[in-house]
Amino acid sequence: MSELAEGMTAPEFDLPRDGGGNVSLAGLAGKIVVVYFYPKDDTSGCTVEAIDFTALAEEFAAAGAVVVGMSPDPVKAHDKFVAKHQLGVILASDEDKSVLEAYGVWKEKSMYGRKYMGVERSTFIIDRDGKIEKIWRKVKVPGHAQAVLEAVKAV
User: What pLDDT does 2 receive?
Assistant: First the structure.
């Protein structure tokens, strides 16, 4: 499958979320959707990223956007992560990694010479019509949430 690009239709998702229930792209139709993919709940970079998006949650909402964080962690881990850090973003659980693969963020990674599969930290802005407006790959966390907010305001 070719890699997703700006202007393409975003792959649908319908996944269990923190707090119970599901979150789906179809259910968010008519809103700008920010989907940020992150490797693991309650690790240093992922915690900073989630807290940064939470700090800007009201501004995202004012711009007509919903923020959804997604990782392969189970819902139970998401619930603990949200409670521990008072997070204000939706966290979706993709345990079978089908959505991670559809978005092209489940990749071979390497650390200390060891290869393994994991989530490449990435963010997608999906416009009100379900098209990919902007993509960030291999995200560096500092300042990222603010940069995403600025891009959302331009949609």
Answer: 64
